[in-house]
Amino acid sequence: MQDAATEIVGLLQRYKLQMSSLNNIGKKARDSNMCCTPRHTMTSLQTWALVTKQKFASPLDFDPSYQAYWSENTRDIVFGASTNAFDTKFTGFSFCHPNYCDFLLHSLVGHALQSKNSIQEATATFLLLPYWLGWSKNGYMT
Fold first, then answer.
1. Secondary structure, 3-state, 52-73
2. 2 located within any domain
3. pLDDT of 21-43, one tens digit each?
């Protein structure tokens, strides 16, 4: 681990590079990757749905009031993130607002359903997924 300032600069540079690589996928998809979940939505999930975990968050948009969060980038361990949410079953009550990527979203829905079907404890995974009318690529919605 480097000093905190260097880690934060690296995180911001990585985020900027990630966003610039999305220029060719269209404005709606690019903008969905840049959206943070509104605070009132996060608070409602915690209060009314007992959500305690946030999956597919970034150190730039995770809610520190959650018990744990998972990031897609292994470097985010230095910011307190667990990594690779697919390595563990989704248990308990969690929330996911992943970046827009058809393959990732399809895998995420499948993993959440597989986790639910393979464990005995109460499990709920709330997924905030994009859906745009007229797009035929929404395989994860089926």
1. CEEECCCCCCCCCCCCEEEECC
2. no
3. 555 555 555 555 556 788 888 89
Q: Cα–Cα distance between 84 and 72 in angstroms, integer?
A: 6
**0.90 exceeded by the pTM?**
no
Question: What is the side-by-side strand order in the sheet with 82-83?
Answer: 82-83, 68-71, 53-55, 92-96, 123-127
Number of domains in the chain: 1
The answer to whether 69 and 82 have CB atoms below 8 angstroms apart is yes
Inside any domain, residue 26: no
Q: Which tens digit of pLDDT belongs to each residue from 77-111? A: 877 888 888 988 898 999 988 877 778 888 888 99
Residue 27, domain member (yes or no): no
- For residue 77 the two structure tokens come to 């361990």
Domain that holds residue 77: 36-141
Select the more confidently predicted residue: 121 or 24.
121
Is residue 75, in this structure, part of any structural domain at all? yes
Q: Helix 4-20 to helix 27-34 angle, to the nearest 10 degrees?
A: 160
